[in-house]
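Here is an idea for our session: we take a single protein and study its fold together. Which protein we use is up to you, so please pick one and set it down. Once you have written the record down, we can walk along the chain together:
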Amino acid sequence: MRLPHFSRALGVLAVATVCGTAGAQNAGPQGGVEGDFEMKNFKFTDGSTLPVLRIHYTTLGRPKKDAGGVVRNAVLILHGTTGNGRGFLGRNFGGELFNAGQPLDTASHFIVMPDGIGTGKSSKPSDGLHAKFPRYGYEDMITAQYRLLTEGLGVNHLKLVMGTSMGAMHTWMWGERYPDFMDALMPLASAPTQIAGRNRMFRQIVSKAIREDPDWNNGDYTKPPRSLVTAATIIWIMTSSPLQQHKQAPTRDMADSVIDRYIDQRVQTTDANDFLFQYEASRDYDPSVALEKIKAPLVAVNSADDVVNPPELGLMEKLMPRVKRGKYILIPTSDLTRGHGTHSQAALWKQYLVDLLKEAERN
């Protein structure tokens, strides 16, 4: 096995230790150590099997074990629906958390940021199978993440599981499936219940727009289907902030220019099959049936201007009492919030992370 390359990431040394069958490492342009973990004959919950499932990942820092051989400093960070692990290296997220003296300083933490099934550099429909790719769900994605950690990276315990949007939903699932595996949990922008109402409706709009488009051709298209315009637009509306978008485009002509530019770029850089499968993967999500299984202290953070998880539904107030050590934080709408995207503005919620980690250390 080739030794990993070393690089400076966000001002700290990024090193990864790889065990099991994880592949060779390469330092990315923004720092961090990248690798691939391959699982042969991976069986999905729908009964289908993929001969080789590849999970790409980025790591920062080194894993550290205690006298009993338990890793005590590993942090799993999970991205949103169309994102990837390296998205966390940006200034607004990693710049607030990973630097020296920050809550997840990589001098003392081992950060693992995987690309979920169907996203980033992990196995996905656009690799060649198109619509014949297994119809994976969130359960499959959690299984792959767990195997990456335990079989690929030799991580047998997590200090923290945290995630944004889809990654937040995965965080709830991690707390239920592996309740003794982590010390703390922090889901950002989510609700621990089956996706319903408008949240489900907009996902159905995305799915039906693509699947019923003749240009999609059962996944075997030769150019981007026109339905991507509809799909991309509804996602933009649901995840953006009215306040911020009005600031960006305060006139009619500016608004037309902004949305036209966004749609053009999104359509040209998005694979319709990948996009479709990513949004359909949420169909098996419903942690509300087992919230009592969560043992670790948990802090759930949402923002008041999040249209995907609107606070007026009262879901969090109803469900959080069932989480033994759970706490719910609602960030008020302000000039600093970004609607659903507030989950990536770490400056707004990192003090809650600091408090959560201190609570976990006391127990």
Remarks:
- Residues 252-269 form the longest helix (18 residues).
- The CA atoms of residues 168 and 187 lie 4 Å apart.
